[in-house]
TrEMBL record:
This is N-acetylmuramoyl-L-alanine amidase. It comes from the Bacteria. InterPro entries: MurNAc-LAA_cat, N-acetylmuramoyl_amidase_3, Peptidoglycan-bd-like, PGBD-like_sf, PGBDSf. GO terms for biological process: peptidoglycan catabolic process.
């Protein structure tokens, strides 16, 4: 496969949050979701997918703070990228209340150096998003005076797969499965545009890795561990630091701590089913996923920290009560079936 260099960019910031870029206050949890709480993890899912497919990837904005458009354009234009995908979330109205505007849009700039190719990339990604999500399609559109579309020296698109001023789409913003879905569909669109092979996010495609391994899946591993807080380089070389991070992850998730990345470790990193029964006192990646899913369905868990404490148990009980499940606070198969769905959750009062 030819070597392609893919840029990935997320709009706005979380810490501190970019002013105004948030949902109206959501009921039940009494907080807003910040736009970057969708943009950043979805960008990371896209990067994981691109690395898995064998692309070289440039993360334009690894920082959690907002970075000026001019600085991001400078970074992009130094890289000689094949293309750039930017992730955002749309809004309509004054931003203080929810309304009916909804759906997916992708954008390109007719003033980009490669307007026809930028349009083609936007169209390919749009097709994949429409086929792979339940969102309403609003089409491919143009924008001017957007630096990451207009002022960059590569093919460029902006993806906005929902409206944070729409109640149901606002709830999706923290859903890890929606992040994955959008990231994967965007990668499929990139592959279609480039004529490259898309490698699915299926356990059978993830190889056994151990110290000494060198390949793009080591980069995937390192990137995922880094996003979980492990301080390692993403260089595709499975050395001592990577092994130590793997052992720590395995210990924190109740896995055999041998430093070898096999099916059980990959499954836990990817949070794939079958998902384990969870109860108060459990810790790890599946608990963090559970907390994110509960929060996006508007059941407050407190911090999304991977620790199944009192607040998480109470959120599980409330979900069970409202979905005709046994309210025992234990997350088994029937509770997972409700929680793992994309969308749903508590209605707008």
């Amino acid at each position: 496969m030819a070597t392609y260099y893919i840029g990935a960019n997320d709009e706005h910031g979380q810490n501190p949050p970019t002013a105004g870029k948030r949902t109206p206050v959501l009921p039940y949890i009494n907080r807003s979701f910040y736009e970057n709480e969708f943009n950043r993890p979805t960008k990371n899912c896209f990067i994981e997918a691109c690395l898995r497919c064998g692309f070289d990837v440039y993360d334009v904005k690894p920082e959690i703070i907002d970075i000026s458009i001019s600085e991001r354009v400078r970074r992009i234009n130094r890289q000689n990228l094949t293309l750039l995908v930017t992730f955002g979330y749309n809004a309509f109205g004054n931003g203080t209340s929810f309304n009916s505007a909804s759906g997916i849009l992708t954008f390109y700039s007719p003033l980009n150096r490669f307007p026809d190719s930028s349009r083609a990339l936007s169209e390919e990604i749009y097709v994949q998003l429409i086929e792979g999500t339940n969102q309403v399609g609003r089409g491919v559109s143009t924008l001017t005076n957007v630096g990451v579309l207009q002022s960059v020296n590569c093919v460029s698109t902006l993806v906005e797969p929902g409206f944070m001023t729409n109640f149901d789409e606002a709830k999706l913003m923290l859903d890890p499965d929606f992040h994955t879905e959008v990231g994967e569909e965007c990668c499929k669109g990139v592959c279609e545009y480039l004529g490259a092979n898309y490698v699915a996010r299926e356990l059978q495609n993830y190889p056994l890795l151990r110290q000494g391994s060198r390949n793009n899946y080591v980069e995937v591993l390192q990137f995922m561990l880094r996003n979980l807080g492990y301080n390692i380089a993403v260089d595709g070389i499975f050395g001592n630091a990577t092994r130590n991070a793997v052992v720590s992850f395995q210990m924190n998730n109740g896995l055999v701590a041998d430093g070898i990345v096999g099916n059980n470790t990959w499954r836990t990193l990817l949070v794939l089913p079958p998902r384990p029964t969870l109860r108060q006192g459990n810790r790890g990646n599946y608990v963090r996923y559970l907390q994110s899913k509960l929060t996006t369905k508007l059941y407050p868990t407190g911090a999304i920290d991977g620790i199944f404490g009192n607040a998480t148990r109470e959120a599980v009980v409330q979900l069970q009560l409202e979905n005709a499940l046994v309210p025992d606070g234990i997350v088994g198969a029937r509770t997972w079936e409700v929680i793992s769905q994309i969308g749903g959750g508590r209605p707008q009062p």
